[in-house]
Queue: 2 jobs
Job 1
Amino acid sequence: MRLPAHWQWFPEARFGMFVHWGPYAAYGRGEQVLFREHLDPRDYERRACAWNPQGYDPARWAETAKNAGMRYAVLTTRHHDGYCLWGSKATDYTSARQAPGRDFVQEYTDAFRTAGLRVGLYYSLADWRIPAYWEGPEYDPQGWTVFCDYIHAQVCELLSDYGPIDIFWFDGAWPHSAGDWRAEELVATIRSLQPGILVNNRLDRAASPTSPAAESAGESRSLGDFSTPEHYITAESGRLWESCQVSTWRLWGYTAGERWRPADVLLDMLVEAAGKGGNLLLNVGPDAEGRLPEEFTLRTEQIGAWMRVHGEAIYGSEAGEVCEFITYGRQTQKANNLYLIIRFWDGQGALTLSGLETAVKRAVLLTTGQEIPFEQAGDCLHLRDLPAEPPTPLFPVIRLECAGPPRPLPWAADRLWSGDPRRMTPWASLRGTGANAWR
Ligand code: GLC
């Protein structure tokens, strides 16, 4: 895939932080509490206007992201509840005009840029407070025009007043079409304001952006520079993609007492995304005061320590399902290197990789830097003298330095249960017609 130079940073980065934060954090039951609990919108609004987080320090968020090895972030500037984290001139339902008296988006963009991270803004088209949003252009054409103008004006503010923005991340187009949102016009405006920006693919209703079937049926294809599989890690060919995932169980906004996925599960999602050629946008919901939950920082610190040693297997890597390796883990590749990212360590001292056609010149256990002796004969590469003890609590990585870009043998180009089954007949015929052969 040929990319314009100003988008190169995105596949290079591979790992970003998604932040869901707004007045809903005060409820501690996710970002959709207003709708899910059918709250009285007047009560919600009163509480939102009084919400005044004292612990919001985006420099600390940025530091956490950086320590995790993340290269960018995306902040919910406005979620479906309609509350704005910046000083919008189009409404007074904002952190700047209500209790905090602060422009949280300004503070975020400043802090993240200072930390050397790329900056993305999430913006929900849906605004649950507004009857015209529910009615839509068919039943309330006038109201819809006013509402849609409001949306366009806010997007312009966000892209005019906060310096260079790297990603604009729409959400909540449902149930309206790209045409209803005047999305093409909106994207043209976005590009005129920020020529280098990446815009995601959620400007049209999709059956569900959370379903891989919807993604592959192209339902969320219209517009957008990258696709956004949610809760799934599905590759899209011919376009950049980024899987967004929660680090907890299910919800994006802060949830008191929520369960957390362990560090190895989170890291595996990053490795899976990289192994399939995409990015991982890992979510956190800061609490009502604006602090990142400790469970998140503890886990991302572990991932960051791993990234400092093994990052070359992730940053700027390409999809790496070169040959059979599913038993042990995943693969990424970069130039002439194939990276074996090993999920568990069996302590056997040896490991075999089958199906690699390209000659291996050198094998290095990236985790310790030690060179690994090997033999490559026939269809197999045998690695020897591996340490008995796991060299890292997370995933050890072996870098295979090959004579050219790593390529599979013809039989190993497809995984089991895919490809032409007849490619395996010669292999099955090897057993000949022994005593147990029926033919
Ligand atoms: C969904 C949800 C939302 C969340 C988002 C993240 O569309 O409505 O709460 O912000 O996906 O991808």
Job 2
Amino acid sequence: MLASIKPLIILEPYMEKPTKKKRNICCIGAGYVGGPTMTMIASKCSEIKITVVDINKNRIDSWNSADLTKLPIYEPGLAEILSKVRNKNLFFSNDVKGAISKADIIFLSVNTPTKIKGIGKGKASNLEYLENSVREIAKYSKGHTIIVEKSTVPVKTAETIELLLNSSCLDNVNNEKKTYSVISNPEFLAEGSAIKDLEKPDRVLIGGKDQNAVKEIKELYLSWVSSEKILTTNLWSSELSKLTANAFLAQRVSSINTISAICEKTGANIAEVSRAIGTDQRIGKNFLNAGPGFGGSCFKKDILSLVYLCIYYRLDEVAKYWENVIAINNWQQDRISRLIIGNLFGTIENKKIAILGFAFKADTNDTRESPAIKISKNLLQEGAKLSIYDPKVEEEKINFELNSCFDDVACSIDKSKWKKFDSIEDTLKGADAVVLLTEWEEFKYLPWSNLFKLLRKPAWIFDTRNILDPNDFCSEGINLWINGIGEYSN
Ligand code: UDX
Ligand code: ADP
């Protein structure tokens, strides 16, 4: 007898589908977050019109430039997607008022740097730009508007935004009814891989009280992100998760950098140690590359914001714990500067040092908090002359960063002490040392045997990213130092 065949019921997994509403989005802030994020939403939701506004006219002109190499930010894959949607459903404009008045949803993507004066100086986030844009929204918005916090903000910022919006309603001379829902939807994109991160996010986080507004924002993402990857939380969890995610990532970099110093003293090899510990799934293999220290606009700022929060709630020991992650980062930059000077016989006065890479990491033209800034300033302070090469960073930006004030390094730098070059050969000509600071792909395969001729012997190559092949360096008068290995001898 044949066994009775049960009818096969195929259960389709429940798929939430986006409802394709015609929406008008305004994004305030056309920076590293606003630009790529809105480009991705525009490319995935053709029924939505998006206007990205900024008070900086040059920035908007660059976003509108016909020449795609002139975009204000460099991000692999961005120009290709942008060219398909720009002036179709994605627009860049300086008309902040006009875009706000037409919007149903407004993304806040303005900068929230660390305060440099007043209460909370050096730790708290400066919410001046955020407050200014919220006041503009209060003035020009119409009807009901969903406000989305995209920029990283301290926990409880949504409360401040609501307070500002609600009290501004009291000034409303026309007596129009304006209402708002504030949502937190932090960005998790990393520069250099922003397009990939936006297209295939690990998760999308949406926090808010108004469940209808949460649903609206979720529907936007459902156009290309599956619903199980969209996490909805309360507002404060969403705001705190963003700070925490960055603090945890930064902590890993600081941890591995302390181990790289131990490797150099003991003969262990940091790449091998990273591989060995990274295979433990509980630790994982990512974010374990030793380097010159973490940079970028988020890590330091977000840890400082977390520290300020701890101080505010009298969690002093917790504040100290997180502050140490930054202290180790500064130590790593100073440690590298000191060992460069030490290996060049303790003096670098008038010696020429070539700096390869100024961006805070590869595949971006962003220099904010780049370890190259502090290391360069330390070397300049010791009397060195620098020749600098970076494939994507403009001279103007390097000049701005080298003249910035922080810690105990000199604020302004004499322009005759450094020069930016457009070719690696020109950068290396006559140099006593080469310091590799950014892991650009092109630095991994340089024709070293030809380049050695350009250097003054005995010369040193300092590989702070651990990306060079030591076999390329068996040459008379050439010394190689690799982060986490130390002086390399064949
Ligand atoms: C970070 C977070 O990754 C992202 O999720 C968040 O939204 C914004 O902040 P980003 O600053 O763009 O992104 O760069 P990230 O790739 O995180 O690197 C930060 C710094 O850590 C860089 O200076 C990088 O060189 C350094 N780093 C990273 C290491 O030194 N070693 C590693 O293994 C990884
Ligand atoms: P992020 O990395 O967070 O994107 P950026 O500094 O690259 O930071 O971008 C933030 C942008 O926000 C800047 O271009 C700045 O001019 C813009 N901005 C700041 N305040 C306002 C405002 N009130 N209205 C419009 N744009 C603003």
